[in-house]
Amino acid sequence: MLPIKKLEDYLKHNYAIAFTKTKEMNFKNMGKQIEPMLRSLELYRQKYPSNPFINKLYRQLKTMKENFERMGKFIVEERNSYVMKMLDQELKRVGNPKKPYTIAIFYGAAHFSDLSKRLAKRGYHQVGIEWLKAWRINSQR
């Protein structure tokens, strides 16, 4: 077992890896991606039954597992649609720049499959991936 301080990084890393390994996001089956994390957390819950961080994270992951299909459409597809709309506005604003122009789109792992498809339909292709830690849970509270 990992120390509790490393648990959150382990879970987030595994979650991101699970998302990127699935070329086709199927939210009906995404609950299965959460099951290994729930099993890991169950061991921590047995060892630290009164730890509020572990218990809260377990409840949140369990809820996510149960509600993934419903959440998926809004969280991924609707947000990605908005991202594409903003991309269109930015591309229209800059027109045809004389120098190379870079636009960064910052998104979470769940958005990868759908957003990649949307960009590919417009003729863009992936040239690399760089994962950045976007947030951190304060597990020391």
Task: Fill in the keyword field for this structure.
about 60% helix; about 140 residues; mainly alpha
Question: How would you describe this structure to a colleague?
Answer:
- The chain has 141 residues and is mostly helical.
- The chain has one domain (4-121).
- 62% of the residues lie in helices and 0% in strands.
- The protein has 4 helices and no strands.
- The protein has helices spanning 4-21, 31-47, 52-94, 112-121.
- Helix 3 (52-94) runs parallel beside helix 4.
- The relative contact order is 0.14.
Gist of the model:
This protein has 141 residues and is mainly alpha-helical. 62% of the residues lie in helices and 0% in strands.
Radius of gyration: 18 Å
Q: Major beta sheet, specifics? A: none
Number of E-type strands? 0
Helix and strand sequence: HHHH
The residue-averaged pLDDT reads 81
Coarse morphology:
elongated
Which regions have little confidence, pLDDT < 50, spanning 5+ residues?
Answer: none
Spatial separation of the terminal alpha carbons:
20 Å
Number of domains: 1
Fraction in helix: 55-70%
- β-strand percent reads under 5%
Structural class: mainly alpha
What is the subunit arrangement here?
Answer: single chain
Count of DSSP H/I helices: 4
